[in-house]
C-alpha cells in the first residue's frame, strides 16, 4: 500500500527533516509511527498525502509514484485517504452531520446517498444520536470521533492520523485507538503517528520509530512485546 524508497525531505534547501527512509506498509496493515517532537512524523504523513514532495527518493502509494501525479489528479488521489488530526479541525458553526457530510458535499455526492453514508459513519463511531449537535456541545473525545467519522465517510483504503489522541486522557485515547483498530479489521490500512508509547506498546501493532528524520527501528508486535 505504501512504499518509501530512499526518501529524503529537505525544507528550505538545507534542513534535512527526513533522510534515507526505506519501508513498506502492506495493504490491510496497522502501523504506528513514533518519535520525539520534530522527528519527522508529520512530514512523513504529509509526503503520503502529497502535501509535501520528497527531495529524494520515491513515495509509492497503491503502486503509483505519487510524485508523478498530475496536479489535476491530486484532489482525486487525496480523497482516497482519510486523515485525522490532533485538533480534529471541525467547523464549529456546522452540525455534527454537516461536518461529516462535508467531504461528500465537496464531491457532489447526491444528498440522499450522502445522508446514508454520513449516518453509517456516525454509527461506526457511536455518535449517531448526536448528529444534530454542534461540535462545541460535545466532549473532546466525542469531537475526535466526529473527526474520525469525517475521515472514513468516503471509505478510504488508507487512514492516516497525526497525534489523534494528543489532547485526550488515557481512557479516551485507548477508545480512539480501538476505533482505528475496528477500521483496520475491516480492511483499511491504518497509520497513526503518536508519541503515546505506553498505549502503543499495549496495542501490539507494528511500530516505525523515527529519530532526527531517520528510521531507527521497525518493530513488529511480537518484538515490541518481548
Ligand atoms: N514547512 C516546513 N518548513 C521548514 N521546516 C519544517 C517544515 N515542516 C517541518 N519542518 C521541520 O522539520 C522537522 C520535522 O518536523 P515534523 O513536524 O515532521 O516532526 P514531528 O515528528 O511531526 O514533530 P511534532 O510531533 O512536534 O509535530 C522539524 O525540525 C520541523 O521544524
TrEMBL record:
<dbReference type="InterPro" id="IPR015854">
    <property type="entry name" value="ABC_transpr_LolD-like"/>
</dbReference>
<dbReference type="InterPro" id="IPR017871">
    <property type="entry name" value="ABC_transporter-like_CS"/>
</dbReference>
<dbReference type="GO" id="GO:0005886">
    <property type="term" value="C:plasma membrane"/>
</dbReference>
<protein>
    <recommendedName>
        <fullName>Cell division ATP-binding protein FtsE</fullName>
    </recommendedName>
</protein>
<dbReference type="InterPro" id="IPR005286">
    <property type="entry name" value="Cell_div_FtsE"/>
</dbReference>
<keyword id="KW-0547">Nucleotide-binding</keyword>
<dbReference type="Pfam" id="PF00005">
    <property type="entry name" value="ABC_tran"/>
</dbReference>
<keyword id="KW-0472">Membrane</keyword>
<dbReference type="InterPro" id="IPR003439">
    <property type="entry name" value="ABC_transporter-like_ATP-bd"/>
</dbReference>
<dbReference type="GO" id="GO:0016887">
    <property type="term" value="F:ATP hydrolysis activity"/>
</dbReference>
<dbReference type="GO" id="GO:0022857">
    <property type="term" value="F:transmembrane transporter activity"/>
</dbReference>
<keyword id="KW-0132">Cell division</keyword>
<comment type="function">
    <text>Part of the ABC transporter FtsEX involved in cellular division. Important for assembly or stability of the septal ring.</text>
</comment>
<keyword id="KW-0067">ATP-binding</keyword>
<dbReference type="InterPro" id="IPR027417">
    <property type="entry name" value="P-loop_NTPase"/>
</dbReference>
<comment type="subunit">
    <text>Homodimer. Forms a membrane-associated complex with FtsX.</text>
</comment>
<keyword id="KW-0131">Cell cycle</keyword>
<keyword id="KW-1003">Cell membrane</keyword>
<comment type="similarity">
    <text>Belongs to the ABC transporter superfamily.</text>
</comment>
<feature type="domain" description="ABC transporter">
    <location>
        <begin position="2"/>
        <end position="225"/>
    </location>
</feature>
<dbReference type="InterPro" id="IPR003593">
    <property type="entry name" value="AAA+_ATPase"/>
</dbReference>
<dbReference type="GO" id="GO:0005524">
    <property type="term" value="F:ATP binding"/>
</dbReference>
<dbReference type="GO" id="GO:0051301">
    <property type="term" value="P:cell division"/>
</dbReference>
Amino acid at each position: 500500500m505504501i512504499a518509501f524508497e530512499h526518501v529524503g525531505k529537505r525544507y528550505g534547501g538545507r534542513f534535512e527533516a527526513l533522510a534515507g527512509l526505506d519501508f513498506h506498509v502492506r495493504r490491510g496493515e496497522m502501523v504506528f509511527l513514533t518519535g520525539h517532537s520534530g522527528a519527522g512524523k508529520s512530514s512523513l504523513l504529509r509526503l503520503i498525502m502529497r502535501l509535501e514532495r520528497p527531495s529524494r527518493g520515491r513515495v509509492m502509494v497503491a503502486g503509483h509514484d505519487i510524485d508523478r501525479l498530475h496536479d489535476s489528479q491530486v484532489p482525486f488521489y487525496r480523497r482516497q485517504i482519510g486523515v485525522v488530526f490532533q485538533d480534529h479541525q471541525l467547523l464549529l458553526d456546522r452540525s455534527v452531520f454537516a461536518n461529516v457530510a462535508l467531504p461528500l458535499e465537496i464531491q457532489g455526492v447526491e444528498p440522499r446517498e450522502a445522508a446514508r453514508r454520513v449516518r453509517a459513519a456516525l454509527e461506526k463511531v457511536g455518535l449517531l444520536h448526536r448528529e444534530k449537535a454542534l461540535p462545541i456541545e460535545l466532549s473532546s473525545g466525542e469531537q475526535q470521533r466526529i473527526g474520525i467519522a469525517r475521515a472514513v465517510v468516503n471509505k478510504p483504503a488508507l487512514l492516516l492520523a497525526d497525534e489523534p489522541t494528543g489532547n485526550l486522557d488515557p481512557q479516551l485515547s485507548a477508545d480512539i485507538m480501538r476505533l482505528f483498530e475496528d477500521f483496520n479489521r475491516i480492511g483499511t490500512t491504518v497509520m497513526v503517528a503518536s508519541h503515546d508509547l505506553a498505549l502503543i506498546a499495549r496495542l501490539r501493532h507494528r511500530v516505525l520509530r523515527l529519530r532526527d528524520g531517520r528510521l531507527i527501528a521497525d518493530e513488529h508486535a511480537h518484538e515490541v512485546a518481548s
